[in-house]
Each structure stands twice: as structure tokens, then as C-alpha cells.
Specification:
Blueprint: E1 4-13, E2 16-26, E3 31-35, H1 42-49, E4 57-62, E5 65-66, H2 72-77, E6 80-82, H3 95-103, H4 111-116, H5 119-138, H6 154-166, E7 172-176, H7 184-199, E8 203-207, H8 211-217, E9 220-225, E10 228-233, H9 235-239, H10 242-259
Parallel strand pairs: 3-8, 3-9, 6-7, 7-8
Antiparallel strand pairs: 1-2, 1-4, 4-5, 9-10
Bound molecules: adenosine-5'-triphosphate and magnesium ion.
């Protein structure tokens, strides 16, 4: 039994078959990359698995239990967290506050207790703040914890998003293009961060166009093309697969994939 399993997922938008019978599994400490050309269905697969879209067919299992169709917050409470392809940062809030937003799922507080300022709530707030600072340290942002997010460089914002997703203490972390728009130095920081997250036992599912990053840190790679599974295997199997080279990597991508 896998920690997370998607099986036969299908969805269409009007005439576009965004996913046709796509599945994958991922386990503790593993890094699974999902790659493929623009419009292949990668983000749609994330959206279906995390409960944002409802599949027309197929199922999602967490710990072997059917969780198909559960809303995102219910899946998050069961240990499934994600980041989005476009930055979803609250720019006027501090870095620390952005991470604390991600913790609200973990906290059981009720409004009444909050308004009364009960000791349990105060303690929880303190713990939450401390834990959020630890996470900022983990992603290398402890010195900028109290700055407004708007002043942070792009690579730092991408790491802040990962810290926020980690704040609900997920067992599975799904990252949609965590290094998109990053320069090579920032990409390497993200690379090291993802490896460290996986070493802690989190299952990581990663969508990424940076082939060096994908080849360096993935255990397995799933290749999508036009909503279908084109190939799946280890990084070295996938980068030498003629179908993958043809549909996605091209000559440039092959060079990057081998430079990893
Ligand atoms: N909410 C939606 N409404 C209509 N069409 C959609 C929707 N979401 C995705 N699609 C379509 O589904 C297909 C797959 O899109 P998706 O965003 O999953 O691709 P992707 O692999 O993430 O691409 P990219 O690498 O550019 O991010 C595309 O044809 C897209 O236009
Ligand atoms: Mg996408």
C-alpha cells in the first residue's frame, strides 16, 4: 500500500481532455517528478489530487483509504499540502505571518476561546510562532522573518511558500514549479531544500521544467503529454527515452538532463 496513490484519473474541460487515465504512487521520503510540455496536464493533476477539481473518473487513495472528491482542507488535515505555480504570498504580511497562515489547519482553536484570551490559546499562539520561526530557519529565511514579504527577492519568496506548505506538517508535499523563474543559485537552494524535506520522510511530488533539478533529486519521473502518461521510470531511463526526447526534452533538454 502506497502513502498516496492516484489511479486512472480523467478530467475534461469542454473538448479538452486534460487528463486521461493518469495515475501515480508516492511513498515516504520519495521524490516523484512529473514533467511534460506546457498544457500536458501537470497542474490539472495536482488540482484533481488535492481536491480543487473533481475528476470525471478515477480515484485517489491516502494510506489506502479512498479520499476521492474530498475538499482541499480535508486532504490538508490528512497530511497533503501543496504550493501553486504562481506565487500565493500575502505581500503586506511578514514572512513569519505568511508561515503562520499555513499553520491554522493544525490548530484546533475556537473563536470563543480566542476572544476570551484563554491560556491554552495564548500557549498555542506562542508555540505556533516558535514553530513558524523554526520553519523559516529551515528554509534559510530566519533573518528576514519579520520583514514584509514584499521586500524579499524572488528565490526567497519561493522558499517562503514551501515553508508555509510545511507549516501544516504534511506527510506529502506537492510542489508546482518550485524553481520557476529562479536563477541558477536560487534553483540550487530549492534543490537542496527539497532533498532535505524528503530526507525527513516527507513524500514529495514535484512538477518542474528545470531538467537539471529534476534529474538531480528525483527517484522516479512520470512524463505526461496531452493529458496522458507518456513514460515513467528513473531519471536516466526517462532522459534517454526517444519518446520523451521527441515530445518534450528536445536536444536542449537532453543536454540539461545529462548535465545534472
Ligand atoms: N480550469 C480550467 N478550465 C479550462 N481548461 C483548463 C483548466 N485547467 C486546465 N485547463 C486546460 O487543461 C490542459 C492542461 O493544463 P495544465 O495547466 O494542467 O497544464 P500544465 O502541464 O500544468 O502546463 P504548464 O507547464 O504550462 O504549467 C490545458 O489545455 C489547459 O488549457
Ligand atoms: Mg502547470
Amino acid at each position: 500500500m502506497s502513502l498516496l496513490e492516484a489511479r486512472g484519473l480523467s478530467i475534461a474541460f469542454g473538448g479538452v481532455r486534460a487528463l486521461e487515465q493518469v495515475g501515480f504512487t508516492v511513498d515516504r521520503g520519495e521524490v516523484l517528478a512529473i514533467i511534460g510540455p506546457n498544457g500536458a496536464g501537470k497542474t490539472t493533476l495536482f488540482n484533481v489530487v488535492t481536491g480543487l477539481y473533481r475528476a470525471h473518473g478515477g480515484e485517489v487513495r491516502l494510506d489506502g483509504r479512498d479520499v476521492t472528491g474530498l475538499p482541499p482542507h480535508a486532504l490538508a488535515a490528512r497530511g497533503l499540502a501543496r504550493t501553486f505555480q504562481n506565487l500565493e504570498i500575502f505581500f503586506r504580511m511578514s514572512a513569519l505571518e505568511n508561515v503562520m497562515v499555513g499553520r491554522h489547519l493544525k490548530e484546533r482553536r475556537r473563536l470563543g476561546a480566542e476572544l476570551l484570551g484563554l491560556p491554552s490559546v495564548l500557549r498555542e499562539n506562542r508555540e505556533s510562532r516558535a514553530r513558524s520561526r523554526d520553519l523559516l530557519a529551515f528554509v534559510g529565511l530566519e533573518e528576514r522573518a519579520d520583514e514584509p514579504a514584499t521586500g524579499l527577492p524572488y528565490g526567497a519568496l519561493k522558499r517562503l511558500e514551501i515553508a508555509r506548505a510545511l507549516a501544516c506538517e504534511p506527510r506529502i508535499l506537492m510542489l508546482d514549479e518550485p524553481a520557476a523563474g529562479c536563477n541558477p543559485v536560487e534553483t540550487e537552494e530549492i534543490d537542496r531544500l527539497i532533498a532535505a524535506i524528503a530526507r525527513q520522510g516527507v513524500a514529495v511530488v514535484l512538477v518542474e521544467h528545470d531538467m537539471r533539478l529534476v534529474m538531480r533529486i528525483s527517484d522516479r519521473v512520470l512524463v505526461l503529454d496531452q493529458g496522458r502518461r507518456l513514460a515513467e521510470g528513473t531519471p536516466s531511463q526517462v532522459r534517454s527515452d526517444p519518446r520523451v526526447i521527441d515530445a518534450y526534452l528536445g536536444r536542449h533538454g537532453v543536454a540539461a538532463a545529462h548535465a545534472a
